Structure formats: structure tokens, C-alpha cells
Amino acid sequence: MNTAPNPWRLCVAPMMDWTTTQCRVLHRLLSPSARLYTEMVHANAVLHGDRARLLEFSASEHPLALQLGGSDPTTLAAATRIAVDAGFDEVNLNCGCPSDRVQSGRFGACLMLEPALVADCFRAMQDAAGGVIPITIKCRIGVDDQDDDHDFQRFIDTVAAAGCSVFIVHARKAWLKGLSPKENREIPPLNYPRAFRLKANHPELTVVLNGGLTTVSSMAAALDELDGVMLGRIAWHEPYVLALAEQALMNPAFEPPSREQVVREYAHYVSTRLAKGEGIAHSIRPLLGLFQGLPGARSFRRVLSDGAPKPQTDPMLLFQALAAVTLTQAMTPPPKPTDPRDAAGW
């Protein structure tokens, strides 16, 4: 399979209320190469809402994709033109979100039931982009009672015939009837072979796998079969995995920054946000899991969480959290050496 680096080899998924500009800046400090995605923004909101807030990003976030929701080709085309002018590197159409709000608006995962409409949307968006940036599709392997192979293949074939060459596949069927969005992240089981068969049947397509990739080894295994991997909640709960993935999957010469270094660099960014009159809480949230699994992680989170709501909080809060980690680690006894006789059953 193709293992050459490509723009989608390592990606971070669009996640509502999580992949804000603050989160993406943190992720960029950890991974210079990962392709980052915004939260899903409805095309109507881009046209009629607070565009400056919805499309805000920092120059450091590139390469950066805007994910759009919607099902009207004309509206999606207009939003795509705005995205091109704003400087995004890609526009991605959401055909995978299973929430009730998304279904009632006839976008997200329910679009998998209407492949011809998705093809029309894609063509309109691609024409609007004028070849300046790629238009991509993020989808599931099916919805409700659809056949995993036949209906998924029909969806891909229809949209690919319209010119789409990049599909980001969440390898789990979405159940629009009876399951919550949270349950749809775990039920039914992931079906990686379905994504692998898609690539085998369509070697000309770029296929990126999303869903359940939580370790570098699982990412590397997926890249033996596919063109790219997209990390979801693990990038929020344990963001340092991005630095490890960067080194293992993108650039072996990359030296992952220490967590302390990341906090110090991020503190400078937080200062710029505060200078604009923004509270610190939005910048603190993406940072909470940075020390996950290490001594001091709980102290780090507690200092940040307790300090964020207080008035007049400044970036020194981040250094106080670092100090709490150092103190905890200094007070943590080293692990006891393993007696080889234990392993031998003596």
C-alpha cells in the first residue's frame, strides 16, 4: 500500500466544542505536520452568522481545513468561496455526524442516504473552490439498516464520479434511530476491513481512517493499508500522542518537545488572547490532558481548573500548574525494582 507522505497522512478530527482555534494552536505545537480541522460550521452560519468568530484561526494552524455542514449546493458553494478567501487549505463536507439537530437540518450522516445530493453538493463546492483548495468528504460506512458493502460502495462511487478523490471514513455505521451521539461513538463496533476494502477497490482514491485510533501502533497498522489516519477524542484527552505520532508517522528526525516546553510556548499564545480581552478559560480547556497518565497530571488539572474562573487570572496560572507537576513528581517514590525471582515464580 501507499506509505509515501501525503497531506492527509496524519489528521485531527473536527470535534464540536473541542477543536477550537485555541485547541488547534496547542495541537500545532505538538505536531508540525498534522492536518487540523475546525469544528463543523453550518454553511448558513458562514453566510449569515458571526463570520469573524466562526472562521477565526491563527497563522500557525496551517494546514487547516474548514468542515462545513449543509445540504444545499448553492449555500455550500457560497460558503466555500468564503473559505477560500479566508485562507483555509481545504473544505470538508460533513456526511457523518449523527446528532438529532444535524438530522433535522438534513445534513451530517443522514446525507449518506442521498448520495446523488452529496455529489451535487460536492460539484458545487469544487466549482466554487476553482481548484485553489481541495474539497473532501467525511462520512460513515453507512447508516441504520444500510448494507455495509453495497450501500457504502454506492455512496462512494456516486460521489467519486462527481470528482471527489479524498474520503475520510469513520469506520462505524451511524444509527440515526434510537442512539445518542455519544452512543454512536461506540455502537456498533468499528469495521476497519470495510475501509480497507474501499482502498483495495479504489486505489486511485485517498482514504483516511477515523475511529478508535488511540495508539501510535494502531495508527501505523492502519497506514499499512490506507493513506492516512485521523485522530479523534484521544487528541483532546491525551494531546501529547500527537507529538509521538509526528515522530513515528511523519518525521523520524522530529524531536518531540517536552510537555513543559509546550506549556511555556502555549503561555505566550494565551497572553495574546488575554490582550484581546478574552478570558483564560477557553485557552485552558485543551491543555488539561497534557500530562495524562503521568505523576502530577491530577495536580496540573486541578490548578488550571481552579484558577481559570477567577477574575484577573493571567498566564502565570500555567506556570503554577507546571510547578504543581514538578512538586508532585518530586514527592512520588520511584517504582520498586522488579525482583527477577518474582517473574520466575520463586
Automatic annotation (TrEMBL):
SUPFAM superfamilies the record matches: FMN-linked oxidoreductases
Residues forming the DUS-like FMN-binding domain are: 12-315
Is tRNA-binding there in the keyword field? yes
Q: Cite the EC number.
A: 1.3.1.91
Q: Where is the active site?
A: C97
Q: Which reaction does it catalyse?
A: 5,6-dihydrouridine(20a) in tRNA + NADP(+) = uridine(20a) in tRNA + NADPH + H(+); 5,6-dihydrouridine(20) in tRNA + NAD(+) = uridine(20) in tRNA + NADH + H(+); 5,6-dihydrouridine(20a) in tRNA + NAD(+) = uridine(20a) in tRNA + NADH + H(+); 5,6-dihydrouridine(20) in tRNA + NADP(+) = uridine(20) in tRNA + NADPH + H(+)
Keyword Calcium annotated: no
Q: Which domain of life is it from?
A: Bacteria
Protein keywords? Flavoprotein, FMN, NADP, Nucleotide-binding, Oxidoreductase, RNA-binding, tRNA processing, tRNA-binding
- Sites annotated Interacts with tRNA: N94, K182, R185, R298, R301
Q: Which InterPro entries match?
A: Aldolase_TIM, DUS-like_FMN-bd, DUS_fam, DusA, tRNA_hU_synthase_CS
Recall the GO molecular function terms of this protein's record: flavin adenine dinucleotide binding; FMN binding; tRNA binding; tRNA-dihydrouridine20 synthase activity; tRNA-dihydrouridine20a synthase activity
Broad class of enzyme this protein falls into: oxidoreductase
Q: Which cofactor does it need?
A: FMN
Checking Pfam families in the record gives: Dus
Binding-site residues, FMN? P14, M15, M16, Q67, K138, H170, N210, G211, G212, G232, R233
UniProt cross-references to HAMAP family, sorted A to Z? DusA_subfam
Q: What does it do?
A: Catalyzes the synthesis of 5,6-dihydrouridine (D), a modified base found in the D-loop of most tRNAs, via the reduction of the C5-C6 double bond in target uridines. Specifically modifies U20 and U20a in tRNAs.
Q: Which NCBIfam families match?
A: PRK11815.1
Name assigned to this protein: tRNA-dihydrouridine(20/20a) synthase
Q: Which organism is it from?
A: Ahniella affigens
